[in-house]
Amino acid sequence: MPSRPGVLLSLALLSAQWLMGQVGGIQGAWEGSIKTPTGMALRLRVHVSANPDGTLTGALDSVDQGAFGIPMDSVTFADGVLRWSIKRLMASYEGRMAVDGSGVAGTFQQGAASMELALKRMDPSAAKAPARPQEPKGPLPYGAAEVSFASKAAGVRLAGTVTFPKADGPHPAVVLVSGSGPQDRDEAIMGHKPFLVLADALTRAGFVVLRYDDRGVGKSTGDFAAATSVDFSDDAEGAFEFVRGYAGVDAKRVGFIGHSEGALVAPMVAARREEVAFLVFLAGTAVPGADVMLAQAEAIAKVMGAPEEARRANRELQEKLFAAIRTTPDPEELREKVMEALAGLPEAMRAQQARQVLSPWMRFFVTYDPAAVLRRLKCPVLALFGERDLQVLPGQNAPVMEKALREGGNERVTMERVAGVNHLFQPAQTGLPQEYASIETTMDPRVLEMVAGWLRRQTGVGGQP
Fold first, then answer.
1. Beta pairing, strands 28-35 & 41-50
2. What is the pTM of this model?
3. Per-residue confidence at 461, pLDDT binned at 50, 70, 90?
4. Looking at the predicted structure, is the pLDDT value of residue 26 above 70?
5. How far apart are CA 85 and CA 63, in angstroms?
6. Residue ranges of domains in the chain, CATH in brackets
C-alpha cells in the first residue's frame, strides 16, 4: 500500500508537540536539600534546559559548598520521571514530578550513599549564581597567556596562566601556590576564584603573575592522589624556574605567595633555592599538621554550637587516628587500625574517611613540622592571618611562625593579623566554611592592598624602596 506522507507528517508534528510538552514541564531551576551521612544539610539546585531537537541538558549547583554549574552527563524526562547523572561525582538522581508540576520527589545517589531529594521549582530570578564583583572583566589593562612547564618531578607537566603588564620590563614576578585539595589555577572554591582576583590586583600593580593547575587538575598532568606536600614543592619549583626565564621578567625579583598549604609548600622551595626573592604567606601553618587539624575541628564545632560531649568524642577519634599514623609504618597494619577506629561510622562514610586518612598526603601532613624549614629562610617574609580564620588559627600559628623565622636570624619579617576576615581573607561574620559561598567579596580589598604594597616596597616597583 502506498505511504501517506500527509498523515506521517501530522503524526511527527504531534510527537514533537508531546515531547516539547514533556520537556517544557521540566525546564527551569529546581532546588531541594539532602541530608548527608554525617547529618549535614546541603542545598542542591538543578538547572534543566532543552536543546532544539528536544533533548535535555542540565547542570547542578551545590549551593552551600559554593560549587555552581557542574555539567550533567545525561538528563532525561519521560513519563513524569526525571533522571540525571554526573559521572565524575559518581552522582545520579531519579524522581517523579508531582501532578501539578510544582515539585519532583526522588532519590539522590552518590557513591554508596542514597539520600532523599525533593525538588521545588524556583523563581528564575532567585536561581542565579551569586555575584562575584571582584572577578576581572575585559577589556583588561594587561596581557595574559596560556602556558605549560615541567615540574622538577619527572613526568609531570603543569598548565597555567601568566598575566603581565603591558609596559616594558623587566618586571618582578610572583608564583601563586594554592591550598590543600585538588585546586585549579584560580584556586576556585565555594563559587569564588581567589587567585584570579589576586593575580588581577598584582598584575595591575606591576607584577608578572603565574597561577597554575595542581598536578592532575585541569590541564596539568600527574597523579594528585598519590602526592604529598613535598611533591607539590617540586611542582612549585618548576613554576619558579619557568617564571625566572619568562620574557620580560627580572629573574632576581621572583618569589612566591602561598595560601594555606601553599604557605607550607613555598618555604620548601625557598629553603633549597636561595634565588627566591620574597615570600608571602596567607594563612600559613607553623605547627605539625595533626595540631592544625585538631584545633581546626574544635574551633569549627564550637562556633557551630556542637555539644562539648560531641567535640570531645571527635577529638578522641582524631587523636587515635593521628597516633596510628605516627606509630604504624606498615600500610596494612595501619589500615586495620584506621578501620577499627572508624568502626562506629556508617559504612559509606567509614570507607570515605579511611581513604582520606590513609592517603600519602595525610600521612605526611600529620607528622610534618613546618618550623624547621621556617628557621632556614633568609628572604623577606610577609605573613598574614585572618582574625576569624577557623581553619588555620592565628593564635596557634602566628607566634610559632614568627619565633621560628627570627630564630633563624631573619630580621626581614612582617606579621599581620587582619581584623574581621576568614581563611579566604573575606570579610566574615562567623569564619565558618559554610559562610564562604554566601559572602559576595572574594578577597578583602585591604588584604589585596597590603600584599601589593608590601611587594612593591620589596621589589622597588614604581620607584618604591
1. antiparallel
2. 0.80
3. confident
4. yes
5. 18
6. 25-124 (2.40.128.120), 142-287+369-463 (3.40.50.1820), 290-365 (no CATH)
